[in-house]
Amino acid sequence: MEHWNALLVTHVVAALFVLAVGPVQILRRRRDRIHRTMGYLWVAAMYYVCFSSFGIVSDGHFSWLHGLSAFTIVTVTLGLISAVRRNIPAHRGNMIGSYIGIAVAFGFAVGVPGRSIPLLLLADPGTAVFVAALVLLSVGVAYASLIRGDRKIIVSPARSNREPRGDNSGDAVVAQRR
Fold first, then answer.
1. What are phi and psi of 153, to 5 degrees?
2. Cβ-contact 57, 7 below 8 angstroms
3. Does residue 141 form part of some domain?
4. Does some domain include residue 161?
5. Region Disordered: what ranges (predicted)?
């Protein structure tokens, strides 16, 4: 479609990433390295979505969505600062609030006729579904690779590149990835 440009496409892809990662971050029980790593990616994508929105205007005017973007920049920043300071209730509140804000914006972007996403869904639904599936797959692969990196690796003495020492040389070596 002729009104889709690189800014709009990257804005939508980053927003889909934020929407896909958010529930997993909120609902996962463990707050570990995976949570922190995906959280930093989520924050970066959220900042991109918010800042890029100021380059997307209809009829040359800002809308309430731009106000929501400015507010979200503040809440994401407060959430990040709260996490660094280990103020978990404030972190949780700011990040969940930021997620709710982007979910509302997404609902508006998809639900209002005449906006870019509904027009794409009508004109080329296959592309829209493909892009959404690609984003979901990317999020799944990112989580899977982080989870895999947390596993302990059993290394047998025969496979290690070191010389046997004579003491406990038959025991397997357990290494921890960090």
1. -110, 130
2. no
3. yes
4. no
5. 158-178
78 falls within a domain: yes
* Residues 57 and 45: beta-carbon distance below 8 Å: no
Residue 23 DSSP code: H
Q: What is the C-alpha separation between 23 and 20, in angstroms, rounded?
A: 7
The burial of 44, by beta-carbon neighbours within 10 Å (0-12 exposed, 13-18 middle, 19 or more buried), is given as middle
- Structurally, the chain folds into a number of domains equal to 1
Cα–Cα dist 105/158, whole Å: 57
- The domain of 21 spans 6-151
pTM above 0.85, yes or no: no
DSSP category for residue 8: H
Tokens of 17: 């990433």
pLDDT digits (tens, 9 = 90+) for 93-150: 999 999 999 999 988 888 777 777 777 777 777 887 888 888 889 888 888 888 887 6
| CA 52 to the chain's CA centroid | 16
Q: Is residue 36 part of a domain?
A: yes
For residue 7, CA distances in Å to 48, 138, 161 come to 10, 20, 50
Distance of alpha carbon 73 from alpha carbon 103, whole angstroms: 15
